[in-house]
Structure formats: C-alpha cells, structure tokens
Write a structure and sequence with these properties.
Length: 174
C-alpha cells in the first residue's frame, strides 16, 4: 500500500511522541528540582537532631573556643553563652529552612497561580510540622530531650524569615 501525501511514516510519529514525552519529563523534573534544597536541608537538620550534636558533644568544640575568646570569664557564664549559641541555632536553621521552602515553592508553583501569602503559609506549616517531629525525635534519643520552647524558637525563626520575604516580595502600592 502506498502512503498518502498527508500521512507520515510511523517512525517519524514515534520519534515525535518520544521527544514530547522527554520534553514533558524534563519540564516536570526541572519543576521538582526546586524542592531538593529544602529537603536536603531537612536531612542535615535531622542529623543535627541526633545525639552526636547534643549539648555535651558540641561543648567539646564550642567551650574551648569560648575559653580562647573570653579567657578570664567564669565557667557558668561561658555555659550560658554556649546555651545561647545553641538556641540561636534553632532560629537560624529554621529561618534558612523557611527561606528554602519559600524559594523552592515559588519556583515549583510557576505554572500554578499561587499567591505569595499561600506559599508563605505552606512553607510555615512545613517548618512547624518538621519542628514538632524533630523535637519528638529528640525526646526518643539518649542524650537529648524534646522541648516545646525549641519548637517555639523554630517557628519564630521561620516566621521572621517568612515575614521578611513577604515584605520583600510584596508589590509596591500604586
């Protein structure tokens, strides 16, 4: 049987379909890649949540540095500084997590008309759920304990960052 002028050979149609599938996969994959940084950061935070990063473990590194920095300071004061450094870590790591989720979801949702406030709410909820699960995990370890105040610090760090990002991305009033 002969081909009509408007019909294409089957191998051309298969090639065209294959290229379309590859294009759709590539676009979809590129969209999901934006969620990789916050997920990797969460994995690192989960590592920090283990006994290897408990106060007694980190004091082996931080205490000598504080003694070098403040050579004639009372040990009790240095213990308070060490405590403050550890607690400020909660603020910082959750501020970074909120920023990564906000950034990732902003890029991920390019094809979906999400508003910045919705992205901030979703980012904040992810941070809250992860903060709670992190403290539950710590309560099950040998040398750590889960603290509701740590969840509050985590949420505070995320909230400060999300507030900043919303203010920064808010279009100026006309």
């Amino acid at each position: 049987s002969s081909l009509r002028m408007h019909e294409r050979p089957i191998h051309i149609l298969v090639l065209k379909e294959t290229l379309e599938v590859k294009r759709r996969f590539s676009v979809g994959f590129k969209r999901w890649v934006w969620l990789l940084p916050p997920l990797l950061w969460m994995a690192l935070m989960a590592l920090f949540s283990t006994d290897h990063f408990s106060g007694s473990q980190t004091s082996r590194f931080i205490a000598p540095f504080l003694n070098w920095l403040f050579p004639n300071t009372d040990g009790a004061i240095l213990d308070h500084i060490h405590f403050a450094i550890r607690k400020s870590g909660h603020l910082m790591e959750y501020a970074v997590l909120a920023w990564l989720w906000f950034f990732g979801l902003t890029r991920w949702s390019k094809e979906i008309p999400w508003r910045m406030q919705k992205i901030a709410i979703v980012s904040g909820l992810i941070c809250l759920i992860f903060a709670i699960s992190d403290e539950v995990h710590q309560s099950m370890t040998l040398f750590r304990s889960g603290q509701p105040t740590d969840v509050a610090l985590d949420v505070l760090g995320a909230s400060i960052m999300l507030g900043y990002l919303l203010k920064k991305t808010d279009p100026p009033a006309a």
